[in-house]
Design a protein that fits this description.
The chain is an all-alpha fold and 170 residues long. It has one domain. The protein is 77% helix and 0% strand.
Length: 170
């Protein structure tokens, strides 16, 4: 079965055995495992501050700082994720197993970067910046869901391989 293809979740093969070993031995796997939930918590807190500003007009500075912190986490996880992808799959981005996740990640990065650009240049007003942040967060949630789905498929695949034995590749 080709990597990245499946008939059912338990038949899905995200990693070859060598890639799985590289994944499991990489320090970047741990880094991603720490950064991903931290970024999610920062996103939730920031979204609360952004919505508070949009509803009340209060707390613009706190909301802005929170979006910048969220953006910092995004760039950090993207850089470390690219290093992880290189160690596991042999290329920094767009490895077949994570191609669409990387594509959507670039959209998320573009939205966050547009926010920073709008803030620095003053080209986008405060309310529009906050709406842009919420759009960026919505895209981030879609991207996070992509990665969680892949993680679930990989775990189901690993459980299936344990029960049925290793996959024989041609």
């Amino acid at each position: 079965m080709a990597r990245g293809s499946w008939k059912s979740p338990t038949e899905y093969r995200l990693y070859t055995e060598e890639q799985r070993q590289r994944r499991d031995s990489s320090v970047w796997t741990l880094v991603q495992g720490i950064l991903a939930p931290l970024q999610f918590v920062v996103c939730i807190l920031s979204a609360i501050l952004v919505v508070r500003f949009l509803m009340t007009g209060a707390g613009y500075e706190a909301a802005t700082l929170s979006v910048l912190v969220k953006t910092g986490f995004l760039f950090l996880i993207m850089i470390t994720g690219a290093i992880w992808e290189k160690e596991v799959f042999g290329q920094y981005l767009f490895a077949p197993a994570f191609f669409w996740e990387d594509v959507v990640s670039f959209g998320v990065i573009a939205l966050h970067t547009a926010y920073v650009w709008g803030l620095i240049t003053g080209a986008i007003g405060p309310a529009a910046l906050m709406w842009l942040a919420l759009v960026a967060y919505a895209a981030y949630v879609v991207n996070a869901a992509q990665f969680l789905w892949k993680l679930r498929l990989a775990r189901l695949s690993a459980a299936s391989a344990t029960v049925t034995g290793p996959e024989v590749s041609a």
